[in-house]
């Protein structure tokens, strides 16, 4: 994993003025611990928030900044904070950090937690102050063992310095923070499934409403935010709304910067903090260096395995939610994957759908039965044993598992890449249909789930 600066070849040094998330990173990749973090102006924003700002003013500042969730959904953070109850008699509230980063091709939160653990803690401290939450949890993907080690050490450092615990900074405000490692389930990225898992229940999504802001952890008001989202909060408080908005490129409707990356057979796979509104071409050519010698870009995903495929001609789209929507898919996590011309799309989709099928919680029928169905059809097509009508059946499943058809967003995200792959590379799917197969009406082919 690499992390470069705004300049394509490290010609421009990261700075606090342009890189609010990453300017404190060490060149050797080691973690920034408390003394170094404070020497780099760490916890100054928290001190400002505690000493000079009313709690409601913190919420309004974040709302005015235009900060949106960085986990993939892109919901406005200040609006989400505003849903927390105003009733002062409700004295038990929770703040949860969603660190269950299991989206394939995505590792941005891992970098922040491993190398800048105090940035996340400061973001959560300011957020807790704004939301009047007395306890916080970092719900961490179980496989992130280094992140867990570094976060636990950073929590202990903050406690010893009086930045967590009782009467923080002499304000009378108490906030405890705990690192909770999950059992490695993709569905826990959905906030209510995360809450169920934290409570010791099966990780099924909950019905909404009621939303977590009203009924969350153990029935109490709860706010859930992504790691990268919370890490943006200190800079917004320290340097202000106008500065934060100025970081984005002209034309972008999303504010600030974003951790973006490229994986696949590119010359320089990595992760970079870039302003919203850069084009996919800049990300692919200037930062990732284009394809390795001998390979050609066939297609790409803009933000994780749950986003639709795009063609090379779409690289000029701006990297923000609305810019990517114009070419037919979602920004997602902002970490792109390049697919080279040696890859068979049927095999790639079979592999993806196997993952999504395995990670389904099984709560609702379309997801529980539809995803294994897609896997079986894709496996048959991959082996040249597909039947006439199978492609139409797959497209039918894309529709039946789309937005609004399932209990949560797991299945819609799972079938989005499938629909786009058939749209752009249908001939590869058709090549797997056996020439002597009988015509089977769409969605009528018998299937044994799990076979």
UniProtKB/TrEMBL annotation:
UniProt keyword Flavoprotein present: yes
UniProt-listed InterPro entries: NADH-UbQ_OxRdtase_51kDa_CS (IPR001949), NADH-UbQ_OxRdtase_suF (IPR011537), Nuo51_FMN-bd (IPR011538), Nuo51_FMN-bd_sf (IPR037225), Nuop51_4Fe4S-bd (IPR019575), Nuop51_4Fe4S-bd_sf (IPR037207)
Residues covered by the NADH-ubiquinone oxidoreductase 51kDa subunit iron-sulphur binding domain: 346-391
Keyword set includes Iron-sulfur: yes
Alphabetized GO MF terms: 4 iron, 4 sulfur cluster binding; FMN binding; metal ion binding; NAD binding; NADH dehydrogenase (ubiquinone) activity; oxidoreductase activity; quinone binding
Cofactor(s) required, per the database record: FMN; [4Fe-4S] cluster
SUPFAM superfamilies the record matches: Nqo1 FMN-binding domain-like (SSF142019), Nqo1 middle domain-like (SSF142984), Nqo1C-terminal domain-like (SSF140490)
Function of the molecule: NDH-1 shuttles electrons from NADH, via FMN and iron-sulfur (Fe-S) centers, to quinones in the respiratory chain.
Complexes and interactors: Composed of 13 different subunits. Subunits NuoCD, E, F, and G constitute the peripheral sector of the complex.
The name this protein goes by in its record: NADH-quinone oxidoreductase subunit F
Organism: Pseudomonas lini
């Amino acid at each position: 994993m690499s992390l470069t600066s705004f300049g394509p070849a490290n010609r421009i040094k990261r700075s606090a003025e342009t890189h609010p998330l990453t300017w404190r990173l060490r060149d050797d990749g080691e973690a920034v611990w408390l003394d170094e973090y404070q020497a780099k102006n760490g916890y100054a924003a928290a001190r400002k928030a505690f000493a000079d700002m009313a709690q409601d003013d913190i919420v309004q500042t974040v709302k005015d900044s235009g900060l949106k969730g960085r986990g993939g959904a892109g919901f406005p953070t200040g609006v989400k904070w505003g849903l927390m109850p105003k009733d002062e008699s409700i004295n038990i509230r929770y703040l949860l950090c969603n660190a269950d980063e299991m989206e394939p091709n995505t590792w941005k939160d891992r970098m922040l937690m491993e190398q800048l653990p105090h940035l996340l803690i400061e973001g959560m401290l300011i957020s807790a102050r704004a939301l009047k939450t007395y306890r916080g949890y970092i719900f961490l993907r179980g496989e992130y063992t280094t992140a867990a080690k570094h976060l636990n050490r950073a929590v202990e450092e903050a406690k010893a310095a009086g930045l967590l615990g009782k009467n923080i900074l002499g304000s009378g405000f108490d906030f405890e923070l705990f690192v909770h490692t999950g059992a490695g389930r993709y569905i826990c990225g959905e906030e209510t499934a995360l809450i169920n898992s934290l409570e010791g229940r099966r990780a099924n999504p909950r019905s909404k409403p009621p939303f977590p802001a009203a009924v969350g952890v153990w029935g109490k008001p709860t706010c859930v935010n992504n790691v990268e989202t919370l890490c943006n909060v200190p800079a917004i408080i320290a340097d202000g709304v106008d500065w934060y908005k100025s970081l984005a490129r002209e034309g972008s409707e999303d504010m600030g910067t974003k951790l973006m990356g490229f994986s696949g057979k590119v010359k320089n796979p990595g992760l970079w903090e870039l302003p919203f509104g850069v084009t996919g071409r800049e990300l692919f050519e200037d930062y990732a260096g284009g394809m390795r010698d001998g390979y050609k870009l066939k297609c790409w995903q803009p933000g994780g395995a749950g986003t639709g495929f795009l063609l090379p001609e779409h690289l000029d789209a701006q990297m923000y939610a609305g810019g990517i929507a114009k070419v037919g898919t979602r920004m997602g996590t902002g970490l792109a994957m390049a697919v080279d011309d040696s890859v068979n799309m049927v095999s790639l989709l079979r592999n993806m759908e196997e993952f999504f099928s395995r990670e389904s919680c099984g709560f609702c029928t379309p997801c529980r039965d539809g995803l294994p169905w897609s896997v079986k059809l894709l496996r048959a097509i991959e082996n040249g044993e597909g039947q006439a009508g199978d492609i139409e059946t797959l497209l039918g499943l894309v529709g039946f598992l789309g937005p609004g058809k399932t209990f949560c967003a797991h299945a819609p995200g799972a079938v989005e890449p499938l629909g786009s792959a058939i749209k752009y590379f249908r001939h590869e799917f058709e090549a797997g249909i056996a020439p002597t197969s009988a015509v089977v009406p769409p969605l009528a082919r018998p299937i044994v789930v799990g076979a």
